[in-house]
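DM from R.C. (forwarded with permission)

"hey, sorry to bug you on a friday — could you get me a structure for this? deadline for the figure draft is monday and I only need the backbone to look sensible"
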Amino acid sequence: MKLFSLTLVSVVCFLSSCNGKKYTVYVTTGNRFLSGTNANVYLSIREHDVSEKIHLDNEGHNDFENGGTDTFKIKTKWDFDDITSIRIEHDNTGVGPGWFLDTVKIYDQDRNRMYEFPCFKWLASDSDDGMIGRELFGTKVPSSESSEN
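My reply, with the result:
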């Protein structure tokens, strides 16, 4: 009987995690010479599980420009209770794909929580340490509708 109960709980948890969860992601590119990128940028959110790799792209908009903050509405398969870290990376494509990332913020509207992930590093194969992806650890920051980004 315990085995059946454990299996049932696992199935319920799996099914509830498949419903998905919406988040708002704010990505701020540094204000340095040639700090923007046209490479494809991907985000994975982490708690105990890892979300799928999500392509951050606002169709028809030039994202990740020098000194800009881009906003993305995303949906994951998982509902993270507390986001502990993220992985952000790019595919190193395009002319001058190197990118200086300031910060990533993730807003969980259902829980009214904002998470901030500082980076302040290059994601570039030819700059800094040569890494085009970074795992960032964040903190919860005060959140209100007027200070989402």
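R.C.: lifesaver. The beta strands are 21-29, 41-46, 54-56, 69-76, 85-90, 99-108, 113-123, 133-137, 139-141.
me: no worries. The radius of gyration is 17 Å.
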